[in-house]
Amino acid sequence: MAKQIEIDLYARQKRLAWFLITPSVFVVLLIIAYPTIQVIVYSFMKYKLDGVTPPSFAGIDNYAFVFSDPDWWHAVWITVIFTIVSVILESVLGLVIAMVANSKFKGRTFLRVAILVPWAIPTVVSSQIWKWMVNDIYGVVNIILTNLHLLPQKIAWLATPATALPVIIAVDVWKATPFMALLLLAGLQLIPKDLYEAGSIDGATKIRQFWAITLPLVTPTLLVALIFRTLDALRVFDIFYVMVGGQGNMATMAVYNQQQLISFLDAGVGSSTSVIILIIIMLFVILYTRFSRTSFE
Amino acid sequence: MNYRLSPNRCVLPKSFLAAAAAFLLPATLQAAGVTIHFAGDSDVGEGGRWTKTLSEEWAKKTGNTLEYISRPNDATATLQQYQQYWAAKSGDVDVYMIDVIWPGIAAPHAVDLKKYFKEDEIKQHFPRIIENNTVGGKLVGWPFFTDAGVLYYRTDLLEKYGYKEPPKTWEELTEMAKKIQDGERKDGKADFQGFVFEGKASESVTCNAIEWVYSYGGGTIIDPDKKVTINNPNAIKALETAKGWVGTISPQGVVSYGEEEARNIWQNGGAAFMRNWPYAYALSADPKSPISGKFDATVLPKGGASGKNAACLGGWQLMVSAYSKNPEVAADLVRYLCSTEAQKKRAIDLSQLPTRPEVYKDPDVLAKNKWFSNAVEILNNAIARPSTVTKADYNQVSTSFFQSVNKVLSGGESAQQAVADVERVAKRIVR
Amino acid sequence: MSTTKGIDTKVAAAGLSSATKETDTKTVVLRVLFYLLVVAIIVFNLFPFVWALLSSFRPSSELFSTKLLPTQLTLAHFQAVFKDARFVAGLINSIIVAGCTVLIALGLGSLCAYALGRLPFRFKGPVLYLVLTMTMFPTIAVLSGLFVMLKTLSLFNTRQGLIVTYLIFTMPFTIWVMTQYFRSLPKELEEAAYVDGASPLKVFWDILLPLTLPGMVSTGLLAFIAAWNEFLFALTFTVTDTMKTVPVVISQFSGSSSFEQPWGSIMAGSMVVTIPLVILVMVFQYRIVEGLTAGAVKG
After folding, report:
1. Which of C115, C132, C173 lies at the smallest CB-CB distance from A285?
2. Residue A40 lies inside a defined structural domain of this protein
3. pTM
4. Nearest to C65 among B81, B268, B279 (CB)
5. Is the minimum CB–CB distance between B161 and chain C shorter than 8 Å?
6. Which member of B220, B347, C131, C212 has the lowest number of beta carbons within 10 Å of its beta carbon?
7. For residues A204 and A176, what is the distance between their CA atoms, to the nearest angstrom?
8. In this predicted model, what pLDDT tens digit does every residue of A240-297 receive, in sequence order?
9. What is each CA distance from B250 to B254, B267, B396, B410, in whole angstroms?
10. How many domains does chain A have?
């Protein structure tokens, strides 16, 4: 009898699952289908968007062009460095901030509000604010650093990659750490407090508690936050475009893509670039799931 | 609307006829009234507001309706938006405000304005502008207002250091800028710069650099006959001269300056010379500006005694969409907005440069903008970027050019290498 | 276990008196460091915002000077911004678009997440991959495809059209994160309910949903902010002032020429746009705490 109820329940659950999942999948497919097909088709065509020349089949010419373009590989390099450094910094700082925000102390609400402010300002605006702050003559960063004698003279931060990249990473860390912190905070709050109490009673130090309790239990949330942050970082566009847009040695993959598609009106090369970026990102996702052993079952 | 003419009256009083005409005419026009959609400067700003008001005036006068669409502030974003419309062959917009470098790209989507504007109307505008706007014989854009790169200089500082006139050559400018910069820095202004300009890797530096290259007799990258001319010793000399300014009379950061960055330093009294567009004049002359009354503007210097004056042509044009349902009415709006009266008003209200030489002689215009008397010569010598000859490939040429120039300025590449790179890209495009 | 505890407590009690003084200094030092960290975090996060706030009150002539503090304050920029009907319209559009996007994403998304996180379903892996694919495309790539699609469906230049495109980045994120939360809930809760004869839907509604509320609030907040700040799609897919969202409106503030950037107005507009979000966060922060303490008591 119990077995029968179990089977019934299982069937009901399965039916409900289909019922609940289908709308979301349907929406996803609807929105993503057309643009995806269009991009893949165009990637194999020679198509200049001048309103005159009709598209023509070009085989893998576009892909060959991209792979032989030094500007493309430089863009990949910049994107990869940016992604690795910024995501690591954001994860570490995010966790620190989340733990601080999770503790009880006066002014906790103020802190929680404060950490969300960078995320709340529109990216195009905050990029402009930062660009102004690092201005080589009137920028507040240069003024303060030279007044404190930490800098011998004012630096033109955005003029060369060596100084511009750290600045851009700093801006992105400033902007995106709140995202990590908020997700990690919610994850931290799911950890039952009695685990810590038991730990304290057993004589475990705060540090040991961190390694033994906090880290393992917050890891699932951390991995989710990690994958989204990394996907965002690999596709980074706004910050680079606003702060150093145009400088050939400071382009990311998305900036290169935009240049081909919108600026050069080359829908063929632009589309193949998009497909290449998509494949790179998919490879990353596969690696990530294998490495983190995140199971979907 | 019915009216009855008494059939027994053979001769109608003139007044009655006049009244009937006045009564009838707007009615017939109103019956024929259409809605014209005009994409112009954002009307949050002064320029856009002014244009919108004038357009609505036209609508009232002609019995049509006007719908004003604000374009994005950024020129690149504007072009992107327009291209979406053109790709969809959309009749949603009748008149577009287009940048001076877009006629080449816009040509397939534009009506040939020679259909609606006669030869004598065309001759009333600066020839260089009309030349720029004509693509393969088709007149794509009707001149709206124009722009050209000019040299701004501090009259008070020139006097202080014993100079009677602004520099005639780049060499003179370098010398004057150095002397003034050294003097001012000794006086306590540690951040004072000799010369500020736009070195940012964007269309801005294409404009600056093409002025340098042309002024040394180095051509304009690509000839109107599709010949690639950039790789020549004069062009190399021009770029090397400019490189020499970075770190000496111009700040290192100049390689990331756009128009606003340069203007901000200049307007706060932080520079002796600036290369910028005319828009900065009215802002710098504003009574609240720190340098109000202490500066003037003139034509940019030549490259050495045997060089030429150069001014990069800017400005905006009006184009009628090839997909418009009412091209003739749209052309009428264009005619109205670019008429002599409109351009005169625009010069007085907004200090924007007219495209009609005769407006520069108008006493009211000159009273408001004294320096316009220099402007005619500047505009007659204005050089257009090779956008018309390269059409949809212009961006690729410009990008290669500005990235190479930017690298030269920041020391990453030699001028020889730079011009060779640009030549390679340009040759591949005009092939 | 209890024996060990007993011994430990005794040892602890014995060493307590001598250890107390040491612990006191250590605690004080730790506390001070802790508060320094708090201050550092707050300064790091708020400085640019404060700088922008200051700039929004600075008279235009003083915006570009090397002095750190303005000599006078002005409300001119804020007045200019609020007098602009377009800005107000932009705020309303942003609220509608962001709000609806989040409601749909959370609504459909958490249902989907419940199924993926809790119910037996054969294609969980592929579905999650599919959902993730949405976020993998560079936005530039899908731009022209979406433009054509919106035009064909007559959704171009409408709020609904924008909401549809916003689901591209809000849905995947919501589904993934909520799946995570559902999975982390203990199985015992459900099993007890099932034994009592509850249906899967009832289990979801009455038991699991309230427990994932903190997750939904966090996710919803982040999704809201992402939708609120989105620029590229809004710029491309809306053209009339009645439909534009506020980041687009701010970017179109201009002076009399296309080169000028009215910093004062841009800063003032940005402040107006950011402050409602800050308030939103404050309100919902309280909710999170509430929800958790309630959950603890119940559990």
Report:
1. C132
2. no
3. 0.78
4. B268
5. no
6. B220
7. 33
8. 887 887 677 788 998 888 888 877 878 888 889 988 988 888 888 888 877 766 544 4
9. 7, 16, 28, 12
10. 1
